[in-house]
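Exercise 7b. Backbone tokens:
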């Protein structure tokens, strides 16, 4: 039943490694972009608040498949933007990461904003009374506490991101979902075995992440 794993025809581990890379690069980029968006959402500058609100509400409610296809068709094929050039696989990988960052960053932003709202207003007011700027108050006083409060929501975002990497298959990125599609076409007599292998692979990627970061969230939670 599992002969396809030993035939050498399919690189299952390689496909999952691409999935891991997509997740890691997109997670780092989403954290940075989401942090910037959260700063805009709570900024005292009306223009920045308006941009952050409009971006989050628009992108968060746009299908991820549409965003990634837009990166491929709009940036590469229409505008000729290849993000550094290289082979078509490398370009597709980078465009998929860009689309995942643009989408996931909105959820990171909202998670962080909810954490910012848990910080007592008096702490920010006291910091401003000491002469700290908005940026200093945000980075030195508010965000350290906000991060500790939202590790669990950010964990859920990371798990969702891991599963969302399968959408990259729509632009030909050779990750797990694309290989699974190929195997389902070629191994019609082992459909349940193929599904089982890939389902187990994603469980092994997401379950340890949830358990580990869940313990971290309990240890660093702010006691109020």
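Sequence design result:
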């Amino acid at each position: 039943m599992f002969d396809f794993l030993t035939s050498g025809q399919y690189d299952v581990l390689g496909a999952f490694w691409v999935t891991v890379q997509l997740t890691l690069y997109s997670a780092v980029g989403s954290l940075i972009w989401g942090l910037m968006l959260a700063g805009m959402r709570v900024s005292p500058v009306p223009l920045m608040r308006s941009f952050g609100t409009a971006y989050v509400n628009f992108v968060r409610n746009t299908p991820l498949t549409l965003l990634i296809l837009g990166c491929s068709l709009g940036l590469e094929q229409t505008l000729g933007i290849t993000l550094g050039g290289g082979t078509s696989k490398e370009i597709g990988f980078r465009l998929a990461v860009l689309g995942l960052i643009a989408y996931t960053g909105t959820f990171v932003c909202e998670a962080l904003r909810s954490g910012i709202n848990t910080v007592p207003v008096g702490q920010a007011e006291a910091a401003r009374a000491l002469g700290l700027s908005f940026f200093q108050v945000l980075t030195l006083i508010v965000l350290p506490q906000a991060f500790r409060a939202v590790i669990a929501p950010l964990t859920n975002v990371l798990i969702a991101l891991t599963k969302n990497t399968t959408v990259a298959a729509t632009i030909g990125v050779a990750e797990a979902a694309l290989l699974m599609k190929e195997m389902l076409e070629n191994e019609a007599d082992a459909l349940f075995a193929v599904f089982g292998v890939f389902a187990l692979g994603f469980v092994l990627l997401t379950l340890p992440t949830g358990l580990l970061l869940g313990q971290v969230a309990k240890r660093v939670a702010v006691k109020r």
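Instructor comment: The chain has a mean pLDDT of 87. The radius of gyration is 21 Å.
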